[in-house]
User: Fold Probable branched-chain amino acid transport ATP-binding protein LivG from Salinigranum rubrum.
Amino acid sequence: MSLLETRDLRKQFGGLTAVDDVTFQVDRGETRAVIGPNGAGKSTLINCITGMLKPTAGSVHFDDQDITGMEPHVAVQTGISKSFQTASIFPNMTVKENVEIAALAAEHGSFQLNFFRDRGSFEGVHRISERMLDAVGLLKHRDQTAGSLPYGDKRRLEIAIALASEPEMLFMDEPTAGMSPEETNSTVDLIEELQDDLGLTILIVEHDMEIIFRIADRILVLNRGRVIADGTPEEVRDNEDVQEAYLGG
Ligand code: ADP
Ligand code: MG
Assistant:
């Protein structure tokens, strides 16, 4: 039984069909990659699953629940979480506070000040925050302001923020974009560790084929919104349609 499944998922922007009847599954504990040329619909697909966009048609099922069109903060309650780019970081707060706020927001569905009065809840939040900062290797920087972190560490912090809701499944859209080769390597190591240590199910969009072939269990290939291949790295590598799409055919 799959953890996540989309059935004929479709997203139109006016006359443009960005995601065209996409059906695919993600198994529990798997690292699933979505690849495809620029404009293939990868980000739109992720956004339709995580609730950032409302699909035009089709459905999304997570853990046997129909989550089609759920608001992102509701989807988080079911166990999915998306790592956002630096916009989600509060630069003047400490690294630890950034993760604690995310954990509080996840626990209560949205963020309200009276959560801080709930002492029992705060201890849980503190524990989750330490665990996730440890998981991404930022525990020693917990009291630093988030804005003072180097670029690669800010991206790690975003991952810790996404993990603060203790999700079963993590979505990452081009997590290594803009990173140096060293930062990219350590991020890829981190993704592998997250799968091993936290048992996370991961869906990753990434343009670097070397990374994809290293970490993905199965790869979904999109072109112009459509699924053109779906299989193991070996199956996808040998697929003629995939080779053609990447050569601009
Ligand atoms: P990818 O992430 O694979 O590069 P996207 O999902 O971002 O592709 O985009 C797929 C297609 O949908 C592109 O043609 C893009 O221009 C279009 N698109 C994406 N978002 C919007 C939007 N909010 N409004 C209109 N068109 C969009
Ligand atoms: Mg994209």
Notes: Residues 111-116 have pLDDT under 50 and may be disordered. Strands lie at 4-13, 16-26, 31-35, 57-62, 65-66, 80-83, 169-173, 201-205, 218-223, 226-231. The longest strand covers residues 16-26. Residues 1-79+167-249 form a domain with the Rossmann fold fold (CATH 3.40.50.300).
